[in-house]
Amino acid sequence: MNSLQMEAGKGSFQFFDAVVSDQRHMRVFYFRPVSNVQHARIVIAMHGLDRAASDFRDVLVKGAEQHGIIVLVPEFDIEAFPDVYAYNYGNVRSAAGAFLPQDRWSFGIIDRLFQHVRAGVESKRTTFGLFGNSAGSQFVLRYLALTQALTLDRAVASNSGIYMLPDITVEYPSGMGGLDLDQTSLRRYFGRRLTILLGQGDSDSTAFDLPRDEEALAQGPHRLARGLWHFDLCKQVAGRLGSPLAWTLRTIPGAGHVDQRIFDTALDILGG
Question: How far is the C-alpha of 161 from the C-alpha of 100, rounded, in Å?
């Protein structure tokens, strides 16, 4: 029996997901509109590497109220998901280099959380939206590339610091290799309803949390440049495959890396 309790407004609940969280409860911060819950849009939002799930929920409340959206922010805490491999990269491969069984990937948490909440509020919705900023953006892009995402209808990925290459010959997580993916997988990825959202002010090449290894610098000096480079690369690869890129690119004038204009625009896109 689903015992989910979600009062109107802001709150949190414990989500039990035994598949990949080792019998742990994951805390989920939410916003729920006052009325029309059964027909409300459901959006799952992925926080940054700071793991500040409650803060991320808070900056999305304005847009959620405006559009009547249920927002869910699962907390990928540092104990259960200790590094970028466990969180950003979806627990597909360990930091030591070992590929993990697919049922241990953390992408499935998102699908199961949606079904849990859908049942708990008796929602009529059969699909959800997905949004991630910074580290959360990396998670979103990999979720779209590596899974069927059968109940996802639209996604927004904003201000990533480094991008996975759309290349099945480059081993994961740098590329999509080593995972039995093929050109059909790439075509599916390029066909997603995805918006790449970039802040035009996210151009600080000295930012303390900006990846600066050789691989990252090859994509550009800062996040804005890397996002533009990655979008252009994906357009070229999709063209060579004869599968036009279905993604859209939006840049927000003046917006920085962590910026309310980014968050409001993301929910405008997902709430429409």
Answer: 24
